[in-house]
Write a structure and sequence with these properties.
By secondary structure, the protein is an alpha/beta fold. Helices cover 36% and strands 16% of the residues. It has eight helices and twelve strands. It has a four-stranded parallel sheet with strand order 3-4-5-10, with helices on both faces. The protein has a two-stranded parallel sheet with strand order 1-2. Strands 6-9 form a two-stranded parallel ribbon. The structure holds uridine-5'-diphosphate (2 copies). Keywords: Cytoplasm, Decarboxylase, Lyase, NAD.
């Protein structure tokens, strides 16, 4: 909307999203919101499609794994069918999960991944892998213009407070005066990208000439114990954590090689975790109806 496009249509089934996040645009003459599930066909006239649909939090995508696979397969097929019919450019938000529990570190786009095809995460990671396959086959077979981003862990304001992923969990727990739940062993790593950097990368990819896949993420890598310590330092100094069980097939490390994004898109993240965590915490604080714990 801020880019000045004169027609923006959002289709969402609100399984994990909320109307509240787009409230400021509702009623704007250039903006249209459709309650729609992409596993069903969608008939609209558009020039560009950002295909973002699919729950990305393990808790949500494991809740109804068959539906998650349908979203990745049928949903992507429908959006590619739409792109083919109206000759729109199609951008897929794929994921670092296509690398599975990676045997190469950091991960480049050339790495083919180490994924369990029958595990509890496979509805998501194999789902996104077949979504990439569909995108490249529509490109090769039907000439559809595609753009594929592989998104690494992203966080920021307006994230669902009960999303279940680690950054939102730790911040919400710390603010509520609960112990942060560090899943064992706590030495597993992730690299966290602030939402505004991610949006900038996605728009550059859509507007550029490269199909991808292109890694989008922040190469700053942290263990979960380091993340808990950062939340304590920057958000709630009195916060503490406890170790809890982990879930199967949790990747032990993850860090993007973003050389390609730098060279092709002229993109790299600007917001560090140290800067981003307090921005997210301020939004959570407001939505939780809490006052600033640091000033108490
Ligand atoms: N599709 C859609 N919107 C459109 C065009 C197609 O949702 O504007 C769906 C359509 O229902 C189909 C899928 O996209 O199930 C794939 O379309 P495609 O034309 O590639 O396949 P076909 O219809 O030939 O099976
Ligand atoms: N994790 C954690 N505590 C939580 C939630 C997650 O320690 O309350 C860990 C989890 O074991 C994983 C990492 O945080 O190693 C990232 O998990 P998340 O669900 O945020 O995303 P993923 O990268 O696994 O999709």
């Amino acid at each position: 909307m801020e880019g000045g496009h004169n027609e923006v249509i959002v289709a969402d089934n609100f399984f994990t999203g909320t109307k509240d996040n787009i409230r400021r645009w509702i009623g704007h003459p250039n903006f249209e919101l459709i309650r729609h599930d992409v596993t069903n066909p969608l008939l609209v006239e558009v020039d560009q499609i950002y295909h973002l649909a699919c729950p990305a939090s393990p808790i949500f995508y494991k809740y109804n794994p068959v539906k998650t696979t349908k979203t990745n397969v049928l949903g992507t097929l429908n959006m590619l069918g739409l792109a083919k019919r109206v000759r729109a450019r199609f951008l897929l938000t794929s994921t670092s999960e296509v690398y599975g529990d990676p045997l190469e570190h950091p991960q480049t786009e050339e790495y083919w991944g180490n994924v369990n095809p029958i595990g509890v995460r496979s509805c998501y990671d194999e789902g996104k892998r077949i979504a990439e396959t569909l995108a490249f086959d529509y490109h090769r077979q039907h000439g559809v213009e595609i753009r594929v981003a592989r998104i690494f862990n992203t966080y920021g304001p307006r994230m669902n407070i009960d999303d279940g992923r680690v950054v939102s969990n730790f911040i919400a727990q710390a603010l509520r005066g609960e112990e942060m739940t560090v899943q064992v062993p706590g030495t597993q790593t992730r690299s966290f990208c602030y939402v505004s950097d991610m949006v900038d990368g996605l728009i550059r990819l859509m507007e550029g000439n490269d199909t991808g896949p292109i890694n989008l993420g922040n190469p700053g890598e942290f263990t979960m114990l380091e993340l808990a310590a950062r939340v304590k330092e920057l958000v709630v100094p009195s916060a503490s954590w406890r170790m809890v069980d982990n879930t199967p097939d949790d990747p032990r490390k993850r860090k993007p090689d973003i050389s390609k994004a730098k060279a092709i898109l002229g993109w790299e993240p600007k917001v560090t975790l140290r800067e981003g965590l307090p921005l997210m915490a301020a939004d959570f604080q407001e939505r939780l109806g809490l006052t600033d714990k640091k000033q108490q």
